[in-house]
Specification:
The protein is built from 4 helices and 13 strands. It is an alpha+beta fold. Keywords: Copper.
Length: 267
């Protein structure tokens, strides 16, 4: 199959998936499909089979492609990143997320905001899954139990923490009523359990990932966003599929298997 034909097929599948059954959002509606790439420490066909056997039965997984030579696993479907990582790690192999989105369709199709404490830790991932919608996945720890509002704010200025990030991000809408009712950057509420952990997965219609770079994700003390945000993180461009196969960081020489996700987890 030609590369352009393959890309068009993947894009069509991702767009159509907005109306298909799949892994469900927090509010019960289906999540859209997208492609997620992992670097997995595999050395033989036995490793490949072990990884496939854990991924393919997962709800929302539609296709698993494995490139043993480059140690890359590509998963197409609606299953959240956390479920995919847990499944791969259950085989006893190291795994790192290296890309997400729809290949070659958008200039910037993936972005990430990383919360590194000292109180709240977490990761928020954005992926453009069609021209009409973006998929959002978030994982937090260190929150006080209960509901917390969260949003995308206009500026990534963290000189005064969340207080210097400006108003909630919004764009001109063809529907004045919709624009007034809810700003584009209003992400609703997170609900933290008694352990302080919160997870979210959902889709935001009209949200364009390329316009989020340099803005901030803010989490508030209460669900109504009536008080100042308690934490904020800048949204940065993230690697899309097919863009990040390096195994050694050019910044500090760290080998990918020696890196850690502990920066985003409250100890």
């Amino acid at each position: 199959m030609l590369g352009s034909e393959r890309t068009n097929m993947v894009v069509a599948e991702a767009t159509a998936a907005l109306s298909q059954e799949g892994k469900r959002e927090n509010d019960g509606t289906p999540l859209p499909d997208l492609q997620t790439e992992f670097m997995v420490n595999m050395t033989c066909e036995g490793c490949v089979n072990a990884v496939r056997s854990k991924l393919e039965p997962l709800e929302g997984v539609r296709r698993v492609d494995v490139d043993l030579e480059n140690q890359v696993v590509r998963v197409f479907g609606s299953a959240p990143v956390k479920s995919l990582i847990t499944a791969i790690e259950s085989t006893g192999r190291d795994v790192r997320l290296i890309g997400q989105g729809v290949p070659s369709e958008f200039t910037v199709s993936a972005a990430v905001a990383e919360f590194k404490g000292p109180l709240v830790y977490g990761v928020v991932r954005f992926a453009q899954v069609s021209m009409e919608a973006s998929r959002i996945e978030a994982y937090f720890s260190g929150l006080t139990p209960g509901k917390h509002g969260w949003s995308i704010n206009m500026y990534g200025d963290l000189t005064r923490g969340a207080a210097s990030t400006g108003a909630i991000y919004n764009v001109e809408s063809s529907s004045t009523e919709a624009s007034v009712a809810e700003a584009m950057g209003d992400l609703g509420t997170l609900e933290a359990g008694i352990d302080g952990d919160a997870e979210y997965s959902g889709t935001k219609l009209g949200l364009e990932v390329h316009d989020l770079i340099g803005r901030a994700v803010v989490v508030y003390e209460d669900e109504h966003k009536s008080k100042n945000g308690i934490t904020a993180a800048v949204i940065a461009r993230s690697a899309c599929v097919g863009q990040n196969y390096k195994k050694i960081c050019l910044c500090d020489g760290t080998v990918i298997w020696n890196s850690s996700n502990s920066d985003f987890v409250k100890q």
